[in-house]
Amino acid sequence: MSRKLTDEMIARAKSDADFCAALQTDPDAVFAKTTLFKYQQNEVLAAISALGGAATKRAPKAAKANAGDNLTKIEGIGKKTAEVLTNAGISTYAALAESTAEQIKAILKAAGGRYNMMVPDTWPEQAVLANAGDWAGLKALQDELDGGKRK
C-alpha cells in the first residue's frame, strides 16, 4: 500500500473519530449536517484500529443495520427514498422510529429535488408499528393516510 493511500486512510479515520465525538456531544446537529455520507464500515473500523482506536460499541448494531428492513412498507417511502434514508444511516424500522420528522426532513432536504416536497411526519409513527411487528396496526394507520400524510 502506498504511503499516500495510507495517509489518506489515516486522515479519513481521524475525521471519522472526530465525527463520532461530535455525534456523542450533539447528535441532532451532527445528524442534520451529515445526512448523505456513506461509509465503508470495515474500511473505517480497520483504519481506526490501525490508529490504535477501539471500535465503538455500536459496531455490532451497525453490522445488523446493513441488512436493513424494507422501508418501502412505510407509506410515503418508495425505493429511491428508502435508498436516501439508508445512505443517511436509517436502514431499519427501529432507526426510523427513533428519528424525528425534523431529522428526516433534513435528510430529504439534503437529497434535494423531489425529496424536498415529502412530508415524513407519520414515518416514525409507522416505523414504531412495523418495528413491533404490528402489521394490523400499521395497516389501520395507513388506511387513515394519503401518501403517508394524514388526510
Give a short summary of the structure.
The protein has 151 residues and is mostly helical. 62% of the residues lie in helices and 3% in strands. The protein contains 9 helices and 2 strands.
Describe the structure.
- It is a single chain.
- The chain is an all-alpha fold.
- It has two domains: 67 residues, no CATH class; 82 residues, no CATH class.
- It has nine helices and two strands; from the N terminus they run H-H-H-H-H-H-H-H-H-E-E.
- The N and C termini lie far apart (58 Å).
- The relative contact order is 0.11.
- About 13% of the residues have low confidence.
Features:
two-stranded antiparallel sheet, single chain, elongated, 151 residues, 2 domains
Secondary structure: elements and pairs:
Elements (H helix, E strand, L loop, with lengths): L2 H23 L1 H7 L7 H10 L8 H9 L11 H9 L5 H6 L2 H11 L11 H9 L3 H9 L1 E2 L2 E2 L1
Antiparallel strand pairs: 1-2
Helix pairs in contact: 1-2, 1-3, 2-7, 8-9
Radius of gyration: 17 Å
The total count of helices amounts to 9
Global structural class? mainly alpha
Give the termini separation. Answer: 58 Å
Mean pLDDT: 77
- What composes the largest sheet? 2 strands, antiparallel
General form: elongated
Question: How many strands appear in the DSSP assignment?
Answer: 2
| Low-pLDDT stretches | 34-42, 55-65
SSE succession: HHHHHHHHHEE
Our estimate of the beta-strand percent is under 5%
Structurally, how many domains make up the residues? 2
Oligomer: single chain
